[in-house]
């Protein structure tokens, strides 16, 4: 993690989940034309980390940002960077994204026969290692490497775009992770998380909730925007609902 916190699951929890659950604003939905202001506003809004979506146009039908933008974001904030690699060949990019400033690096199980070597490599580079599963992927498929995960990212949409509808298939996977005796990973959920869906995610055991549209407003080109006050109110409301659901 940025600063002194070691790249461990415990360090990840201590730095990003001081209240047990936290919102991870996804920059995919921000106004990249004002990214410095957007990040400053998110910091003032009380976010404990930032979620950055890296898309290659192959694993997902969209292209987003790459290493240069992560480097720029790193210069703009001390917040931990939760980097979500939606790439066909993540092994080639974990080192460049770690060098760019990623604190957590999440790769997709769908493109890895055996995720363990890459998860171990990510930790050797000094980041925490996350593994993600898409809605059609059975959570049982990662049981053999569950002990090697500092974080598991359960997708509640097919990755590629913000603003999609939440798929409740994620809830059973979150419960499976919470109840699994060998799972110590931070449980993160991503896609369509908003004030209507976040309580169910927290009740199912999600600890880290990625929120793009729900924080920044309609993401990307339909940007409704806002400032720290809007982002702060939205993060506070989402956090309140998540903490209530987690009880
Ligand atoms: C989708 C990304 C998500 C997305 C979330 O491929 O992985 O992180 O940005 O956006 P919302 O919260 O708008 O669904
Ligand atoms: Zn994501």
The CATH superfamily appears as: Aldolase class I
Q: What is the CATH topology classification name?
A: TIM Barrel
Mean pLDDT: 94
Task: Give the CATH level 1 class.
Answer: Alpha Beta
Question: How big is the Rg?
Answer: 16 Å
User: In terms of per-residue confidence, which ranges show pLDDT below 50 for 5 or more consecutive residues?
Assistant: none
**Shape by Cα distribution:** globular
Q: Helix amount, in percent?
A: 25-40%
Distance between the amino and carboxyl termini: 27 Å
Number of helices: 9
Topology:
Layout lengths: L8 H8 L5 E4 L9 H10 L5 E6 L11 H10 L4 E6 L7 H7 L3 E5 L7 H9 L3 E6 L17 E5 L13 H11 L6 E5 L7 H6 L4 E4 L1 H4 L11 H19 L1
Parallel strand pairs: 1-8, 2-3, 3-4, 4-5, 5-6, 6-7, 7-8
Helix pairs in contact: 2-9, 3-4
The chain binds D-xylitol-5-phosphate and zinc ion.
């Amino acid at each position: 993690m940025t600063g002194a916190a070691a790249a461990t699951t415990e360090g990840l929890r201590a730095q990003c989940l001081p209240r047990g659950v936290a919102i991870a604003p996804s920059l995919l939905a921000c106004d990249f034309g004002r990214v410095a202001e957007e990040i400053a506003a998110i910091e003032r809004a009380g976010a404990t980390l930032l979620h950055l979506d890296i898309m290659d146009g192959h694993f997902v039908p969209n292209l987003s940002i790459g290493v240069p933008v992560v480097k720029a974001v790193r210069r703009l904030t001390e917040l931990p960077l939760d980097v979500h690699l939606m790439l066909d060949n993540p092994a080639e990019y974990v080192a460049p994204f770690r060098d760019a400033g990623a604190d957590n690096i999440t790769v997709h199980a769908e493109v890895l026969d055996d995720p363990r070597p890459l998860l171990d490599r990510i930790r050797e580079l000094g980041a925490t290692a996350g593994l993600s599963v898409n809605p059609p992927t059975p959570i049982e498929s990662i049981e053999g490497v569950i002990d090697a995960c500092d974080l598991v990212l359960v997708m509640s949409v097919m990755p590629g775009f913000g603003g999609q509808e939440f798929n409740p298939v994620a809830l059973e996977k979150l419960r499976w992770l919470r109840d699994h005796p060998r799972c110590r990973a931070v449980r993160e959920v991503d896609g369509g998380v908003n004030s209507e869906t976040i309580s169910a995610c927290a009740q199912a055991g999600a600890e880290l909730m990625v929120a793009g549209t729900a924080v920044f407003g309609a993401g990307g080109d339909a940007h409704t925007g806002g400032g720290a006050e809007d982002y702060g109110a939205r993060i506070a409301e989402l956090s309140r609902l998540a903490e209530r659901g987690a009880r």
